[in-house]
């Protein structure tokens, strides 16, 4: 027999923990599975600093009291809303403290399968337990969606990896490494690999690496011309952060295009002096061939002017981002996969984050094509947690009220034909 609960949350990162905190405050019965902040611990390089400013890096509790700033004040950790990069270990410790305070019932277990049943869903855990749930919220993060370009995909895994595969970079000391990409992950990795004693080169498809600029003091004119948001300054960002429901109402093709194009690769300003003039960066280059030769990975790079250049290394790291594709969530049953309607392989969601499978919800990066670019970042956790918890608690309250009504009273009223 499977144990039963109203809501199951899969994932214990910023979104999963925030949603759980709100639901528990509303007394909604739930179970939540996952290791706290696991993606940040296992898929981000040690020593990294977050690209997001401190004020935009908060998990969401119902009273908006336990912010990153509040945690740092409690612990005596240096903090500033802007201008002082947030260290990865600080953010992870904050998330873990949030979990202990607001989600003490977190179960450090892995969901290995999810299937639909006549009354909802059944989940099977890595310890063999089966759990029945009426609603399931997938807050599984980005780890499953790491994207490797097809030009590289033929390399054996001992010569090729994704940036999300690396937390500890010490194994690359003394080795030649080529990092593919022009964004924050690529530049962060390149700088940290160099610190570990690796010989690093970067290959970027873009014609130039465009680093962010530090915010610095802002005049009244600056604030009017480009208001500050959790996504950075600008009126477009105002719309993305203040009107995710309006964004949801836009045509699907428009939404997908905006999410793909807006806030593209842009390394943080504080990494610039660790990379420029210290690490060779080949820009405007496409990888057209990748092979292994003499126990090294060899790449052929093509430039717009027709030139081709060869480059080799002991290992290639693809810091080429993430592409949401629900087919890569291997724990979803084939039936669920076939029933999910998609928007560019991401799940198409209702205004309450519900997929085309009733009772199955997706949050975080997987919901960005429905609600906008803010949902790709930690900053989207507050909007998500408040809206989804209100929806789920409302449906739970309705079901509880129905449970108190005698079955005969639930029969539809007969309507006269007159």
TrEMBL record:
Residues 395-418 are annotated as: Disordered. Gene3D superfamilies: FAD/NAD(P)-binding domain (3.50.50.60). Keywords: Oxidoreductase. This is NAD(P)-binding domain-containing protein. It comes from Methylocapsa polymorpha.
């Amino acid at each position: 027999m499977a144990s039963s609960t109203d809501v199951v949350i899969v994932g214990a990162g910023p979104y999963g923990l925030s949603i759980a905190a709100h639901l528990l405050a509303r007394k909604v019965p739930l179970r939540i599975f996952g290791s706290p902040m696991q993606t940040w611990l296992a898929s981000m390089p040690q020593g990294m600093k977050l690209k997001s400013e401190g004020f935009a890096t908060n998990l969401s509790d119902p009273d908006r009291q336990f912010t990153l700033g509040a945690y740092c004040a409690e612990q005596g950790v240096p903090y500033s809303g802007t201008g002082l990069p947030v260290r990865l270990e600080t953010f992870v410790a904050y998330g873990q403290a949030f979990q202990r305070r607001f989600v003490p019932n977190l179960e450090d277990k892995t969901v290995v399968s999810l299937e639909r049943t006549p009354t909802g869903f059944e989940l099977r855990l890595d310890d063999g337990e089966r759990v029945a749930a009426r609603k399931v919220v997938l807050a599984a993060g980005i780890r499953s969606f790491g994207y490797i370009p097809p030009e590289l995909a033929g390399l054996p895994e001992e010569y090729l990896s994704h940036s999300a595969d690396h937390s500890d970079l010490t194994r690359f000391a003394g080795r030649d490494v080529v990092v593919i990409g022009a964004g924050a992950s690529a530049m962060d990795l390149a700088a940290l690999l160099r610190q570990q004693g690796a010989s690093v080169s970067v290959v970027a498809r873009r014609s130039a690496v465009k680093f962010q600029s530090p915010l610095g003091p802002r005049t009244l004119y600056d604030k009017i011309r480009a208001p500050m948001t959790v996504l950075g300054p600008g009126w477009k960002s105002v719309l993305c952060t203040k009107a995710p429901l309006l964004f949801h109402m836009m045509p699907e093709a428009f939404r997908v295009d905006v999410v793909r194009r807006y806030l593209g690769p842009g390394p943080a300003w504080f990494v610039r002096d660790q990379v420029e003039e210290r690490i060779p960066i080949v820009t405007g280059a496409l990888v057209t061939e990748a092979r292994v030769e003499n126990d090294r990975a060899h790449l052929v790079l093509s430039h717009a002017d027709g030139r081709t250049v060869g480059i080799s290394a002991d290992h290639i790291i693809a810091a080429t981002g993430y592409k949401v594709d629900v087919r890569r969530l291997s724990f979803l049953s084939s039936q669920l996969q076939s029933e999910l309607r998609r928007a560019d392989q991401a799940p198409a969601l209702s205004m309450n984050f519900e997929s085309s499978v009733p009772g199955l919800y997706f949050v975080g990066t997987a919901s960005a094509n429905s609600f906008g670019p803010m949902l790709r970042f930690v900053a989207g956790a507050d909007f998500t947690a408040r809206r989804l918890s209100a929806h789920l608690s409302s449906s739970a309250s309705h079901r509880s009220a129905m449970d108190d009504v005698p079955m005969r009273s639930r029969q539809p009223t007969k309507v006269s034909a007159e």
